[in-house]
């Protein structure tokens, strides 16, 4: 049904998952094999106390992703099944020194939890023993950066996105001073880690919003299968892969305290599934520019076929319509690209509705203004999908670089 | 850490998961091996179109649970990782004939979706291809039964539970006319199936409440590991197993239209994790009567050791305190037992809190009044855990028996 190529998640996902999930290898053999892959994949079989020793290779709860490194984990990591995004507002008294303490505490506990160890003041230490590829990724809003190092330290692009005509933004889903992205293949692990980290942060900041997302379960589909969104569309085919030559240039910032970090955009996008239901299959495929069956462009057969935007129908119309999403999202400028890592959401409906669903659109890019905004502007001007989708939340954060074992996230800003 | 015995989930879970997840067998071999186990386990490798043929045995998205049978699926089924419980209120005009049509439509689509086939009017047919052990279990509230067959058809126990002093019930989490329990190892599958079934039901009923729960991910832990709740307690050790000699007597009703069905109780129980954090480890173990490390009774070493309620400390106090949960939950009467199938919940916190978490306590029993109520009454009178837990929702439903391929759920009441 879908190709073996995995531009959505990074090709490393195939080898890693193949290794760890297939059950053919275990113990030192697997560790060594994965080690060769570690620069990109950051994954290895679990070190979780009491888990790694007595479980088969097919039990994935002990799998861990390295916390330390040049970049934070949770960006190029093959997306886990569950992610919770939490934005916090800093308390008035949280000054530069307090920010440093907060990030030191959060870093220590995030590092421990991701390796299957309890947080330092873990009230339920047994719950930390199943990391299931837990990653914790921190992001800073403009107010945090200003408190830490003055307004001049704020990257030009670290501010609310320009207003788009399609936006119906709610403050309760937008902005914030500190971001936590907490992701794991186990929803229980996400819940426990979120609580432990919010306990650490409560003296410094309070929760502004929490957004909970999911993708397919670990092992439910063939590794490398591109995600479908709740419209049924194959979503993410054209995403750059961490193996691509220009990936580093597109994603990693190179200047100042943010060098090795990146920019983060979260657009909470409501999807009107009831209205979508009234559109026929052909209309749905035209709006996207891809088939529903396997995500192939309307000019192709396989998902990863390159779209032919010049192809015309018998009567002279473009096969991939002018208003289609893939045509509008595509730029002539190779720098106007982003790295997506989206999750679905599905809330309990209210007031006679039967669903409240959508996409937590997440993208990483070195410069939000230069890379994300032009794409969004084109989609704002014309994109048939706008008929069924509405951005209801929007947030931009700077993701600091990673740190080594003795350091902490944010040290390049706060150290 | 934990025993190989699986009274929580049924021993069949071990063999089934071992077979399907270990990756050692596939195709016809697995089908035959599992077939021998099917009476209890109801599971077999997937028939999902386009999935079963090209995936390895270790990919679990194609796994299916039989929909048809003497009992509905989703009761003795080893609990899936995700479950959504939806209660609906019938529209005023939904009479006996309409109820029959509704249940015929719902049965048809539930049967299809659980087997990896699209619903009849599926608007996103590709989303149904990953059942991941999807089960759909229907329950009837007293008003539905009365409309279908008059008040005399309502079982004596099918009514709101008696008021308990610990209750702080909210109508928005309680009662209802029709229950859907939709469970799968894949959260995306639960979301899609829920939406398809609510579309079927919308002409007949509207959503009263939706409650979303999770357990550990499929394959994250060794099969048969007893669930921990968000307090970190091993929760469910003493649960009867479908293999137990008296399981059928405890769970399945034998009279009238409900023969082969059962009684369902859902207690939404808020857990005050912040208050729990202030209790030391010894206090936590005393409140439960079991250790936190592995769930062993305070008089034992291993999780499944039989508690010794007569054992005394050096100074003459009971080792398992009088107020402990396991002592209060236990009855001298072997008929006062229930079959639990609980899920955890974790919602976005509001108003300065850092969590809104708890347990969707779910139990199945042939007679709610005789089996569930005496236990709950004892816990209401005295149970140290009441200090940290508060029931905020309560619902009782009658779960009709299963049906065969030509039939529909509820036919014994509506046929």
Automatic annotation (TrEMBL), chains A, B:
Top-level taxon of origin: Bacteria
Keyword Ribonucleoprotein in annotation: no
Ranges for region Disordered: 284-306
High-level lineage: Bacteria, Bacillati, Actinomycetota, Actinomycetes, Micrococcales
Residues covered by the Dyp-type peroxidase C-terminal domain: 227-403
Signal peptide: none
InterPro entries documented for this protein: Dimeric_a/b-barrel (IPR011008), Dyp_perox_C (IPR048328), Dyp_perox_N (IPR048327), Dyp_peroxidase (IPR006314), TAT_signal (IPR006311)
Descriptive protein name: Dyp-type peroxidase
Source organism (scientific name): Leucobacter manosquensis
């Amino acid at each position: 049904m879908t190709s073996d190529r995995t531009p959505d998640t990074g090709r490393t996902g195939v080898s890693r998952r193949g290794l760890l999930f297939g059950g053919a290898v275990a113990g030192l053999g697997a560790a060594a094999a994965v080690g060769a892959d570690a620069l990109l994949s950051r994954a290895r079989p679990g070190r979780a106390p009491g888990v790694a020793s007595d479980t088969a290779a097919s039990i994935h709860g002990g799998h861990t992703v390295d916390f330390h490194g040049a970049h934070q984990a949770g960006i190029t990591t093959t997306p886990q099944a569950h992610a919770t995004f939490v934005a916090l507002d800093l308390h008035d008294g949280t000054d530069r020194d307090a920010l440093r303490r907060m990030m030191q505490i959060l870093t220590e506990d995030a590092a421990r939890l991701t390796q299957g160890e309890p947080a330092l003041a873990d009230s339920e230490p047994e719950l930390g023993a199943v990391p299931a590829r837990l990653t914790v990724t921190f992001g800073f809003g403009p107010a945090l950066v200003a408190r830490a190092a003055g307004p001049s330290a704020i990257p030009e692009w670290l501010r609310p996105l320009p207003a788009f005509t399609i936006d119906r933004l709610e403050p309760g889903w937008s902005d914030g001073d500190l971001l936590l992205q907490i992701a794991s293949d186990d929803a229980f692990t996400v819940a426990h880690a979120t609580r432990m980290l919010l306990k650490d942060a409560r003296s410094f900041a309070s929760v502004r919003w929490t957004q909970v997302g999911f993708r397919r379960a670990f092992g439910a589909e063939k590794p490398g299968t591109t995600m479908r969104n709740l419209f049924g569309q194959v979503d993410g085919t054209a995403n750059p892969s961490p193996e691509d030559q220009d990936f580093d240039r597109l994603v990693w910032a190179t200047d100042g305290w943010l060098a090795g970090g990146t920019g983060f955009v979260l657009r909470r996008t409501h999807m009107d599934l009831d209205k979508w239901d009234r559109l026929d299959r052909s209309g749905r495929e035209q709006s996207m520019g891809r088939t529903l069956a396997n995500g192939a462009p309307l000019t192709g057969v396989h998902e990863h076929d390159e779209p032919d935007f010049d192809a015309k129908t018998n009567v002279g119309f473009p096969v991939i319509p002018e208003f289609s999403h893939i045509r509008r999202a595509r730029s002539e400028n190779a720098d106007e690209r982003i790295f997506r890592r989206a999750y679905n959401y599905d809330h309990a409906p209210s007031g006679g509705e039967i669903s409240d669903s959508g996409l937590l659109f997440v993208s990483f890019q070195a410069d939000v203004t230069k890379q994300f905004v032009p794409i969004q502007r084109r989609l704002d001007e014309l994109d048939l999908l706008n008929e069924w989708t509405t951005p209801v939340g929007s947030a931009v954060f700077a993701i600091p670089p990673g740190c080594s074992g003795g350091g902490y996230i944010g040290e390049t800003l706060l150290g």
